[in-house]
Write a structure and sequence with these properties.
With 205 residues, the chain is of the alpha/beta class. The protein is 34% helix and 23% strand.
Length: 205
């Protein structure tokens, strides 16, 4: 991870994409440790976490996770999922947060030196290029160690630096016993992202 002392950093976390990558690598993320880790890398200005929410449930298991993150240093960006029926008549739930992430990153570009993007989605390549033209360095965090790899080749090439999520496991993984008052992140995310259409990788070797 190439960070410089004193540089202003912001994290942009594509929740479903990061969850999928961590799951393929076989570990759960401790979001407090993640925030603490990046706080040591420079001046952490903001940490954005993006996720869709299934709103038609009487009780959403993801809500305690969202609330916990909101109270523990993350800027939560959420929106309701959309339900539709595909050409085969199957019920699908979609929750894409790409636009929200792109708008926030463009707005923050004037106030940060280094953006750390937790996603392997190739659709972000043009966004990364645009903020680089504003003088912002961009690190992409995803993985090529999983099967299939979770990062698009064009995004990895565009970034100033690529950090494989597997190299951060010892710094950001959860232990067997959750912190007191912390919700069951793994259960909540697995329920949410099993309902929301999965993020497919467009990695090209």
């Amino acid at each position: 991870m190439r960070c410089y002392a004193g540089e202003k950093i912001a994290l942009f976390i594509d929740g479903s994409n990061l969850y999928a990558a961590a799951r393929l690598l076989g570990f759960d993320i401790d979001y407090k440790k993640l925030l603490d880790f990046f706080s040591t890398k420079g001046r952490l200005i903001r940490a954005f976490y993006y996720t869709a929410l299934v709103e038609d449930q009487e009780y959403s298991p993801i809500r305690p996770l969202v609330d916990w993150l909101d109270y523990n240093g993350y800027n939560m960006v959420t929106k309701p999922t959309k339900e539709f029926t595909d050409a085969m008549g199957r019920r699908k739930i979609k929750g894409n947060m790409d636009i929200e992430l792109a708008v926030d990153l463009m707005e923050m570009a004037e106030n940060i030196d280094h953006a750390i993007l937790f996603s392997g989605d190739g659709d972000f390549r043009s966004l990364v290029e645009a903020v680089q033209r504003k003088g912002v360095r961009v690190t992409v965090v995803s993985t090529v160690q999983s099967q299939p790899p979770m990062v698009a080749d064009e995004l990895r090439r565009q970034a100033d630096h690529f950090t494989d999520l597997s190299s951060l496991i010892k710094d950001i993984s959860r232990g067997p016993v959750p912190t007191k008052g912390e919700p069951d992140f793994s259960k909540a995310q697995s329920i949410l992202y099993s309902e929301v259409g999965g993020e497919k990788t467009d990695y090209v070797p």
